[in-house]
Design goal:
Structural class: alpha/beta
Shape: elongated
Radius of gyration: 36 Å
Largest sheet: 6 strands, mixed
Number of strands: 10
CATH architecture of the largest domain: Up-down Bundle
CATH class of the largest domain: Mainly Alpha
CATH superfamily of the largest domain: ABC transporter type 1, transmembrane domain
Helix content: 55-70%
Distance between the termini: 58 Å
Low-confidence stretches: 6-20, 604-614
Strand order of the largest sheet: 6-7-8-3-9-10
Oligomer: single chain
CATH topology of the largest domain: ABC transporter transmembrane region fold
Amino acid sequence: MLPPRTARAADRPPESAARRDPANLLRLLRYVRPYAGWLALGIVTTLFSAGLSLVFPKLFGNLIDASFLKRGAGAADTAPLDRIVVLLLGVFAVVAVFTALQSLLIARVGVRVVADLRRAVFSHVLGLSPRFFAVRRTGELTSRLTSDVATVQTVVSSALAQLLSQLVTLVGGVSLMVLTSLRLSLFTLAVIPLIIGTAILIGRQIRKAARDVQDKVAAANASAEEAISGVRVVQSFTAEDLERRRYGEGVEDSFQAALRRIRLSALLAGIMTFLAFSSLAGVLWYGGRQVLAGTLTPGNLVSFLFYALQVGINVGGLTGIFSQVQEALGASSRLFELLDTRSDLPEAAAPTRLGRLSGRVTFEAVSFRYGEEAEGAVLSQLDLDVLPGQTVALVGPSGAGKSTLVSLLPRFYDVSGGALKVDGVDVREAGLQELRAQVGLVPQETLLFSGSVSENILYGRPEARPEEVVAAARAANAEEFIARLPQGYDTAVGERGVKLSGGQRQRIAIARAILKNPRLLILDEATSALDNESEALVQDALEKLMVGRTTFVIAHRLSTIRSADLIVVMDAGRIVQRGTHAQLIAEGGLYKDLYDLQFRAERAPAPPISVPEA
C-alpha cells in the first residue's frame, strides 16, 4: 500500500475538543439571526401544516362511522358522508399550500445560512498565516468548503423543518391517542422508549462513522488536488499509475468508511421498521378486541390507528433526523474548528498608521525559527539597516536564510527575537493589510490565476484604469507579446498561467507589481529559471521596477549583484559579510569564494566550437 502524503504528526494541529461538542450546531444560530423573519414565517407555516395534519385521523374515523354506523330506515342518508369528504379535501388543499410554503421558506433560510458559512470559512482561512498552510493540505481545506458545508446544509435547510413538523405531530398525535383510548395508548407507547434507546445507541456509531467518511474524503481530495496541480511533474516522471493507485486507495478507504456508515444506517432503519410494524400489529390486535367488546367504535379504532401511524412515522423520522444531525455534528465541528483557528500573526489592538513609506528597513538583533520544535534557529542575532531607495543583494549558500529573511518583511512570519522595523515602526505594531499593501513580491516561480492577462495585472490594484494596465505592461516589456495573443489583454492564461512561457509569466508578474506601486520590493531569484533572451527582457523590466524603491534581491546573476548598493553575505542564518562588490572581492572570504565558484562562468568567454574534419 502506498504511503499517504501527510504532514508529520508533530506538525498536525491537535485534535480539538470542539470536534466532539454538540454545542457547535447551536453556533449556527448566529448565522440564522439575519434571516430570523423568514425563519419565523417558515416555523409558523410548519406548525400550521403539522397541526392540520392531526385533523386527518379524526375525519377519517368520522367517515368510517358515517359509512357503517349511521344508517336510517330505507335509503341511506349520505349528507354527513359528503360533508366529511368535502371537509377532508379542503383540509388536504390547505395543508398542501402550507407544506409548500414551509419547504420554500425554511429551505431558503438554510441555503442562505450555508452560503454565509462558506464565505465566513473561506474568508477566515485566507487570513491565516503561511505557517497554518504548511501543515494543512489544500485538498483538505477545499473538502471542508464543499462536502462538510453540504452536510451542514442538509440539516439546516430540511432537517429543521422536519424536526419542527414531526415534534408537533408527535406531541399532538400522542395527546389525541390518549383522548381516543387511554388503554390502547398505554399499550402502544410502551414500545417508544425501546425505539428511542435504539436510535441513540446506533446514532452515536453513525456519528463516528460519518466523521470518518469526511476525513477519508478530505484525504482523497488532497491527494487528487496535489496530483492535478503538479500534473506536469507527474507526467514527466511517468507517475500516472502511481497517482492513480494513490488516489484509488484513498477513494477505497472513503468507500469502506461510507459503507460502514451505510450499514449502521441500514441497521437502524431495519430495526425502526420492525418495531413500527410490530407495534401496529399489536394495536390492531388489542384494538380489535375492544371493538368486539363494544368499548370502541370502528371509526375511533381507525382514528387511533392513524394517530399511532403518525406517531410511529414521526418517531422514525426523528431517528433519521438524529442520524443527519450526527453527521452534521462532525461536519460543523470541523468547520468551526477552522473558524476557531487563530492566526499566529496577531493584529495590534490600535495599529500604528504607516502612511506612504519612505522605505527604510531595520533588522535589530533578529532571530527566527520555524516553530517551537524546530531543530535550530534559521536566523540568529541579525542586524541590518537599509536606507530608503537602496538595493540590497542577498547572497549565500543554500539554506543560509535568505528567503526566510525577506519573508519577514511582508510579515508572513513574525520574528522569534529582536525587532523588524519599517520607517522606525515595528511591523508587529502596524496594520497587516497596510504593511503588505506597500510590499511588492516577484518570486522565482510566478503564480498567475486562471483569468485573463488583464485580470492578472489588475490583481496588483483592482481599481486601476485600463490605460494604467497598458502602461504597466509596457514598463514590464510585456506589451509586445500581449498584442500577439489571440484576444490580447482578454486572453485567458490558463490555470497557474500554463498557456504562457516562463518569461511571459514573469513579465506579467512584474507588470502586476508595477501597477501595485509598492515602496518595498522583494525579488526572489526572479530570473534564475529563464533563458538568455527572456532574462534580458525581464532584467530590463526589473531595473525599471526597482527605481526609487527599497529593494531586496535574492539572485545568482553577477550583473544583478554587482549593481546593488549593498551586498549582504549570509551563512547559517547570520550575516558574515556586507559591502559593495569591489569591497567584498578585496576583503576575500565567503563572498569571493562564491564569486570564484559560481559567478566566474558568467565572465568566462564561451569555448571555441571544434568542428571535426570530414
